[in-house]
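ok so I'm stuck.
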Amino acid sequence: KKFHHISQGTRTIPLPYNWLINLEQPKKSPYRLFGFTEEKFVDNDHLLKFGFIRSKKDAVYNPDGLPIGFAKTPSQNVTGLNRQIDAVGFTCAGCHTSHFISDDGSGAKEYIVEGGPATTDLGLFGKSLAAAIGQTVLSSHIPVFDGRFERFARSVLGDTYSPQAKLTLKKDLTVFATKNARESDII
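replied:
not stuck anymore, here's the structure
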């Protein structure tokens, strides 16, 4: 478990960890964009679509139950934010762990192959992540339809939630999205 989730200093996903954990999945249709949803981007069923491998929650190494290869990296500089923050990144296991399922008639069994080539689609993952961030930013700028951003702000800010903190988060998210969109894809 440690190899699958321990930070190795990676900065492959230049995003605050708490933001990733609280983002909602992107909507495919603009008509559904402003509807109510609680489907988190990091839900295993969503992330497994990109080829990641399910992993169990662990109080020390994987408290949020992310798939193999995701890690929290403390004290990172994130483009668009003027402070160090816990960020999310990929571990070596994210690209160098594979799996297969075998069924000999007595039931399916999953095998994890350490050092095997991963079957992840990082391009599609990056586009989905960028869409989730973009839709959250858009929601923050449309007061009548800001439910998506409101849920995000309440989750990210927790006990520190206030109108001022929400406004600061909106500014940070907008600057982050703008700077990262100009420089490259999200990963």
